[in-house]
Specification:
Beta Polymerase, domain 2; ATP-binding; binds adenosine-5'-triphosphate; binds magnesium ion; two-stranded antiparallel sheet; metal-binding; alpha+beta; 11 strands; 7-stranded mixed beta sheet
Length: 402
């Protein structure tokens, strides 16, 4: 189990060789103990930011005011943060001031949960002053220090609690639950960007419903922007959907909003400051879900919406227990059997129509092309020039009849 840290240990060694302390900390240690994959490695060190920069040829001052420098070593990025304590969070966003300190223990004490407050030294020894390992074994989520005080200090930790429940299937300790109930109103002071980031991570966890359950049981969810008026029926819906049927973050958010039956999802997405790209994906999914809700998948529907969206709609249905798996395979086969995939695949174009009917250009071309397209997709007409010409001429004659 050494492999994931092998490269990081070379970074630690450079610090140590220069007389500094350095440890792997936070999520990487936690996930390693849980046997989960490790996506990024954070390092805590006694070296000051400018000393970190001097020590490595490739660094980026990503959060230097908080003591964080990104170090690129052997093509891998590490977030390296100088041991620090934090002052009060005057704006509930950033600590008012950070103080660089000399000890790892103090640095670990500022961290949110005991399972996130462990460090691993270069020889693999785990430093665990708050018994995170023991809590992990019991799958118990506990704060470092008094939960109420830690949530007041940074209310985001309440959302992080639910996010870890969702990602790791840990159980929030009773002190955490009570503190969430008590401090929930401070959620309103958080910046929406931080809220969105944690809620997106929560929705991507494998145990989303446990995370949402915690947020509902403590009423924290209803302190979030535009969620104060969630009805009991909507709560029920939220807890009955299967988010694991979704294949993307956009599908997970669409499923969340569909369960809430929001009349104006665009207003929610704007208020929550979703990126334009994600917002548009979610809106398109929701629109298509409603549009094809009652419809059977015909060749024409499938062609119009495209296989990619059709499968996504099917997954939204599956998340809501409205669909069966076999339809997915059926859709794949249907898409392969479509005579054309786009209008560009038609063997004729507007110039042909003009020449055949000897008509000046006009809106009729677009309408006629659309009719041809549908007839070809529905296999009423082969995608062949002679056949299409006959068909167009016959339609034209028909129209001329009184
Ligand atoms: P992930 O696997 O999602 O990266 P993580 O535990 O690494 O999980 P990060 O948000 O990357 O989470 O934070 C890194 C570490 O910084 C955490 O493990 C925790 O020790 C500390 N931390 C992050 N946010 C807070 C916070 N709001 N309050 C206290 N400590 C925090
Ligand atoms: Mg992390």
């Amino acid at each position: 189990m050494k492999a994931p840290f092998e490269l990081a240990e070379r970074v630690l060694k450079r610090f140590i060789d220069h007389g500094y302390e350095a440890y792997i900390v936070g999520g990487a240690v936690r996930n390693w103990l849980l046997g989960l994959s490790i996506h990024d490695i954070d390092i805590a060190t006694s070296a000051k930011p400018e000393e970190v920069i001097a020590l490595f040829p490739s660094t980026f001052p990503v959060g230097i005011e908080h003591g964080t420098v990104l170090v690129r070593h052997d093509h891998v990025d590490y977030e390296v943060t100088t041991f620090r304590t934090e002052g009060t969070y005057s704006d509930f966003r950033h600590p008012q001031h950070v103080t660089f300190i000399g000890s790892l223990e103090e640095d670990l004490a500022r961290r949110d949960f005991t399972m996130n407050a462990m460090a691993r030294d270069i020889s693999g020894v785990i430093i665990d002053p708050f018994h995170g390992r023991q809590h992990l074994k019991k799958r118990l989520l506990r704060t470092v220090g008094q939960a109420e005080a830690r949530f007041l200090e940074d209310p985001l930790r309440m959302l992080r609690a639910a996010r870890f429940v969702s990602q790791l299937n840990v159980k929030a300790d009773s002190e955490v639950i009570e503190a969430m109930q008590k401090q929930k109103c401070y959620i309103q002071r958080l910046s929406i960007e931080r809220v969105l980031q944690e809620m997106s991570k929560l929705l991507q966890g494998h145990w989303v419903l446990y995370g949402l359950e915690l947020l509902m049981a403590t009423n924290v969810l209803f302190e979030l922007p535009m969620l104060s008026n969630v009805t009991p029926q909507e709560r029920q819906h939220l807890l009955s959907v299967d988010f694991n049927r979704c294949a993307s973050l956009a599908e997970r958010w669409a499923t969340f909003l569909l369960a809430l039956e929001r009349a104006a999802p665009a207003a929610f997405l704007k208020k929550w400051r979703f990126s334009n790209a994600l917002k548009n994906q979610i809106l398109l999914l929701m629109q298509n879900y409603h549009c094809y809700k009652e419809a059977e998948w015909t060749a024409w529907n499938l062609y119009r919406v495209g296989l990619h969206q059709a499968l996504a709609i099917q997954r939204l249905r599956a998340a809501r227990h409205e669909a069966v798996e076999s339809v997915m395979e059926h859709l794949q086969a249907m898409a392969q059997a479509l005579p054309i995939q786009t209008r560009a695949d038609l063997v004729i174009d507007g110039h042909d129509l003009q020449a055949w009917l000897d008509q000046p250009p006009g809106p009729w071309i677009k309408g006629t092309l659309a009719n041809i397209e549908q007839a070809v997709v529905e296999k009423q007409l082969p995608n062949e020039r002679a056949a299409i010409k006959r068909w167009v001429k016959a339609c034209h004659e028909q129209k001329k009849k009184p």
